[in-house]
Amino acid sequence: MRAQRPPETPRKTPLRPPGAFIVYSQLLALRPSGPKNLPHPQILETLISASPVQNLLRASTAAMSLLLLVVSALHILILILLFVATLDKSWWTLPGKESLNLWYDCTWINDNKTWACSNVSENGWLKAVQVLMVLSLILCCLSFILFMFQLYTMRRGGLFYATGFCQLCTSVAVFTGALIYAIHAEEILAKHPRGGSFGYCFALAWVAFPLALASGIIYIHLRKRE
């Protein structure tokens, strides 16, 4: 009769040593002379924690914090530009310190040192510009609220996409409104034959357009990096 072999005990898979012990075992395998002159695993762990990889991670975190700060400042700048462009007096300047904006025709009175304003004549294209500029201001405020909510809650999700989309819509609205106003400049000259030129509010609207476009692209890029 054949002798029965004792049952084999199941082999246990050795646990993989963490962190510095992996590096330590690899160094042992590379040195034929054994562990002589090799640092202790705890010392090696300290060396790894101070390695260029950790420094690179710290630099990446600092760069992201700086990028978020720059994006916030850029968004606030766009809000200021849109507020001034939408609500201030100078979309079209006329001789004699008279100016037109989206809402009023204002004349500077030297005697009283005040502005005398009356409602602008209503027409379809000017109403369209008014709606587009107000819409761009609302969208920019909404996107800023979404961005601040994302930073406050630190939740991962699609909020950066929503913020970027709102900013892109803001840029489209500003561009369309400023373009409509520029196209109908001849009608303004027909009603005011004394001449004139575009005011600083019109210029601020054109400045806000590329800034809002760049801001929306940055928000979408930030979401992709999460």
User: CATH first level of the domain at 68-89 and 122-225: which class?
Assistant: Mainly Alpha
Q: Give a quick account of the main beta sheet: strands, pairing sense, barrel closure.
A: 5 strands, antiparallel
Would you give the CATH topology of the domain at 68-89 and 122-225? Butyryl-CoA Dehydrogenase, subunit A, domain 3
Order of helices and strands: HHHEEEEHHHEH
User: Strand fraction band?
Assistant: 5-15%
Protein name: Epithelial membrane protein 3
Function: Probably involved in cell proliferation and cell-cell interactions.
Transmembrane segments: 66-87, 128-152, 159-183, 203-222
Family: Belongs to the PMP-22/EMP/MP20 family.
3D structure, described in words:
- Its main location: membrane.
- Belongs to the PMP-22/EMP/MP20 family.
- 64% of the residues lie in helices and 9% in strands.
- The protein has 226 residues and is of the alpha+beta class.
- Strands 4-3-2-1-5 form a five-stranded antiparallel sheet.
- The protein is elongated and about 110 Å long.
- The N and C termini lie far apart (69 Å).
How would you summarize the topology of this molecule?
Elements: H1 20-30, H2 41-49, H3 52-87, E1 92-94, E2 98-100, E3 104-109, E4 114-119, H4 124-153, H5 159-183, H6 185-191, E5 197-198, H7 200-225
Antiparallel strand pairs: 1-2, 1-5, 2-3, 3-4
Helix pairs in contact: 1-2, 3-4, 3-7, 4-5, 5-7
